[in-house]
Predict the 3D structure of the following.
Amino acid sequence: MDAREARTRLVESLTASGVLHDARVREALLTIPREVFSEVDPFSDAPQPIGSGQTISAPHMVAMMAQWLDIRPGHRVLEVGSGSGYHAAVLARLAAPGRVVSLEIIPELATRARRTLADLAIDNVQVVEADGSAGLAARAPYDRISVAAGAPAVPQPLVDQLAPGGRLLIPVGPMDQQTLLLVEPSGASTPLIGVRFVPLRGAYGWPG
Ligand code: SAH
């Protein structure tokens, strides 16, 4: 089975299970070559190691987050936690011709994500090596903010960097188990599901 077929199967199974229902998200998952970002078992619906003790989120999580964010063409998107760059590539496909700024705190991961995205000629993502727990005020406001690491609480700078009508999606809670929250510019938040992400580090994250 070639990679395209494997991606098609994955998308079909996520669709059959009811997780994946948005046609644009489906197209993005079919198009972005997950196997280039994650060499270990890229087509199983599970998180996979990407080095430096970090993981690439499972495809169903990327799909659900993209659907909850409701990313439209032209949106300015901030991602916190580039990791492999896969999730950023999916967000970029949905937001094009809008742009994604993706922040990564581990230098080696930022470098590798940048290289992978360049190799794939995905040119509407900018990977910036930075503590993303405070966002990136210089490039704000953002229509959508997607956080791929678990925070102890919602960082206020991220809320402040939302455009009017914007949305922030962030896992919040104890280090080993969080609730995915959809946060509005007013600070009002809606709990979505229980999740388990690697810890968010930095000024508004966990120490260490
Ligand atoms: N979205 C990624 C997976 C993210 S895993 C993908 O598609 O592969 C979470 C990532 O968040 C890790 O790479 C981790 O280093 C990063 N991270 C943790 N705290 C961070 C912070 N304060 N700022 C930026 N990145 C952070």
About this structure: The radius of gyration is 16 Å.
